[in-house]
Design goal:
The chain is an alpha/beta fold. 32% of the residues lie in helices and 13% in strands. A seven-stranded mixed beta sheet has the order 3-4-2-1-5-6-7, with helices on both faces. The protein has a three-stranded antiparallel beta sheet with strand order 8-10-9, covered by helices on one side.
Length: 412
């Protein structure tokens, strides 16, 4: 009887796993490229910009796929932040090296050199970009893509983007455009903070709107089956962490919830705890009072729960902190990036002596402004610590960008 029960459990698990595998609803760019027998790369010497997120639907690395493709010659790899195999910690320099699995030289695009040099591109006919984006302007992989497009144009090399889903979907557009004086590696382009495009669509927009100077020869290998309304879980694809603090697909949704405030080191936002970007906490906050204040605002699609914790590292390491965990109850209704500013507002209302721009490290203001795309968010908020003082500025470019970006949609 016991053996029969074990067999039944095994059968149920195998069916569950099988049904899970069958739920993949889309084909990413690398899957479509395989389906096309690598036609656009045939007979060419390929340089690949990728990292561990560059995998097919069965989690096989694009590096190995292109290296073994019979009609393709993989001659170079280019590593963004974290490196091509994901063996470099966040912020650490990526070194030039050789990929041990393929013997292909690896060039760093994170450190002193962020744009491929002519020497790095020697002998390369086409650059291929295959990295999973998270749909937020300050995440540096799209900056790497744009700089590679510039290099491709300057060196008369084609660039191919193997498209992937935007895990926040293709509908949310939040934040002002980056302004002159605030363009940086964390805000490389004059686009909103959440821009509602896949990396392929974004590449088309950057090229089409002359945001990079001379346009490059660009080819996007489209996905099959992706819809703008999809979040990542609806694709059926497995999630490969795009960085150590984006371990799950929902982490990409929470990144814009707290990432701008997180630049100040003023509160813990969960980096260093088990829920990165999903919380706000400090030693001086009262968890229950803050949750009550925030929930009284009835923000669409958001619930705040009191939380007590001791971070394992980073802000507040080992200290007893308290605050709120953010729960997204209705993703479509929630305005993600607004949440951090509203938390700043309510924290200041409860603790006026701790108002963010009275207490935060001034040495971090420049990074805050670069991520926000302007110093006006900080300066206007600092006057009264109120979200309503910056709301219109934060959204002033969103409608125009939505109309502009529609010209470059590849998916409905």
């Amino acid at each position: 009887m016991k053996t029969l029960k074990i067999a039944l459990i095994a059968l149920i698990l195998s069916v569950a796993v099988g049904s899970q595998a069958q739920k993949i609803t889309i084909k990413t760019g690398i899957e479509v490229l395989k389906e096309q027998n690598f036609k656009c790369l045939e007979g060419k010497r390929v340089g690949l910009i990728t990292n561990p997120t560059g995998v097919d639907n069965h989690l096989r690395s694009t590096i190995d796929i292109l290296n073994e493709a019979p009609n393709v010659t993989l001659v170079a790899l280019y590593g963004p932040e974290h490196g091509v195999r994901g063996d470099v910690h966040a912020g650490d320099k990526v070194e030039n090296t050789t990929d041990p699995s393929t013997g292909v030289p690896v060039f760093s695009l994170y450190g002193k050199t962020r744009k491929p040099t002519p020497e790095m591109l020697e002998g390369v006919d086409v650059l291929v970009y295959d990295i999973q984006d998270i749909g937020c302007r300050s995440f540096t992989y799209i900056s790497t893509m744009g700089l590679a497009m510039e290099a491709a144009a300057e060196n008369d090399i084609e660039l191919v983007v193997l498209d992937r889903p935007n895990p926040v979907g293709g509908l949310k557009i939040e934040g002002n455009l980056v302004e002159d004086g605030f363009v940086s590696f964390v805000s490389q382009f004059k686009i909103p903070y959440l821009y509602g495009l896949t990396c392929g669509e974004l590449a088309l927009l950057l090229n089409g709107e002359n945001m990079l100077g001379n346009p490059c020869k660009l080819h996007v290998v489209k996905m099959k089956g992706w819809k703008r309304k999809m979040d990542y879980t609806q694709t059926g694809l497995q999630w490969v962490p795009s960085s150590p603090h984006i371990p799950h697909p929902h982490s990409a949704i929470f990144y814009p919830v707290s990432g701008i405030l997180g630049e100040l080191g003023y509160m813990s936002i969960g980096v260093g705890y088990t829920i990165p970007f999903q919380m706000f906490a400090a030693t001086w906050l009262n968890a229950e009072a803050l949750a009550d204040h925030l929930n009284a605002l009835n923000l669409p699609g958001v619930i705040f729960r009191p939380i007590h914790l001791k971070p394992f590292y980073s802000v507040g390491q080992g200290e007893h902190m308290q605050g709120v965990q953010v729960h997204i109850s209705d993703f479509r209704k929630a305005a993600l990036s607004d949440i951090q500013f509203i938390v700043m507002q309510e924290a200041a209302a409860l603790h006026p002596e701790k108002a963010v721009f009275d207490r935060a490290n001034e040495g971090r203001y420049r990074m805050f402004d670069q991520v926000a795309g302007s110093d006006q968010i900080r300066l206007r908020f600092a006057e009264n610590n109120r979200w309503e003082d910056i709301r219109d500025y934060w959204y002033k470019d969103a409608d125009d960008f939505r109309q502009l970006s529609k010209r470059y949609y590849l998916y409905k």
